[in-house]
Amino acid sequence: MHYSSILPDVIKVADEASEKVLHIYQSDFKVDFKSDHSPITAADTASHEIIVRGLRNISRDIPILSEEGKDIPWEERKHWRRFWLVDPIDGTKDFTQRTGEFTVNIAMIEDGEPVMGVVIAPALKEAFWGVVGEGAHLRDRTGKVRGIRVAEPKAVKRVVASKNHLNEETKAFIDKLGDHELVQAGSSLKFCRIAEGHADIYPRLGPTCEWDTGAAQAVLTAAGGKVQTLEGKPLKYGKEDVLNPFFIASGDWYIHR
């Protein structure tokens, strides 16, 4: 399948969802909580509905797995060779706290790997997209589009991690890197900051789900980076359990050790 041919349509769908999300973000919205106590707003639901409708218009025969969609049993999902993976809003806490660091995410998964991804940060007016093997792009807040690629790391590594919520495992990992500086970024923008060359490595030693990472991983991989588990294996998708193992996202320089 030639993903570059449908990428413009996917970007349009993500843009439409982002416009709706931004409209709600700028309003006096209400915050509810799901059974796992994670926050959800009308923006999550509206974004999900827009994206699902848009993706079905692009291709009706490709199934969709969305964080805000209905649970789809493994007996059905295990037969999917290719599927859309959607996070209508990644970083809902950033959304509710109005930091601007939240994103709309659409990925295409094929044979367990993200092969195309679109990540839009509505409040920051930034958009990232990429097709693995064909490159990645950034549309900045002025609307200008340019190609992006991971940077060659310098002696002082730029680490994407929260200054306020570093667990002990993450601190230990960062300390092993030697000289470093912390780069702040929320949601899936952590991957994108590496993809555009503004950071070097993102250690995630805490829980995430497949929809949290799929689109941004595709962008990073398309930009020359990689994502691997702590055992040095690729981060895989379409598993029975949608939880990800801990992982390291980086430019291609990092080798598990």
UniProtKB/TrEMBL annotation:
Q: Which GO terms describe its biological process?
A: 3'-phosphoadenosine 5'-phosphosulfate metabolic process; sulfate assimilation
List GO terms (cellular component aspect): plasma membrane
For Mg(2+) 2, which residues are the binding ones?
Answer: 87, 90, 212
Reported EC number(s) for this entry are 3.1.3.7
* Cofactor(s) needed by this chain: Mg(2+)
Q: Which residues form a coiled coil?
A: none
Gene Ontology MF terms: 3'(2'),5'-bisphosphate nucleotidase activity; magnesium ion binding
* Entry keyword annotation includes Glycoprotein: no
Q: Where does substrate bind?
A: 67, 89-92, 212
SUPFAM superfamilies tied to this protein: Carbohydrate phosphatase (SSF56655)
Q: Which residues bind Mg(2+) 1?
A: 67, 87, 89, 212
Instruction: Give the catalysed reaction(s), semicolon-separated.
Output: adenosine 3',5'-bisphosphate + H2O = AMP + phosphate
The record's principal subcellular location, in a coarse class, is: membrane
Cite the InterPro entries for this sequence. CysQ, CysQ/Inositol_MonoPase, Inositol_monoP_metal-BS, Inositol_monophosphatase-like
Q: Which UniProt keywords apply?
A: Cell inner membrane, Cell membrane, Hydrolase, Magnesium, Membrane, Metal-binding
The compartments listed are: Cell inner membrane
Q: Does the keyword Metal-binding apply?
A: yes
Q: What class of enzyme is it?
A: hydrolase
The UniProt entry's sequence similarity note says: Belongs to the inositol monophosphatase superfamily. CysQ family.
Function of the molecule = Converts adenosine-3',5'-bisphosphate (PAP) to AMP.
| Name this protein carries in UniProt | 3'(2'),5'-bisphosphate nucleotidase CysQ
Organism of this sequence: Marinobacter sp. MMG032
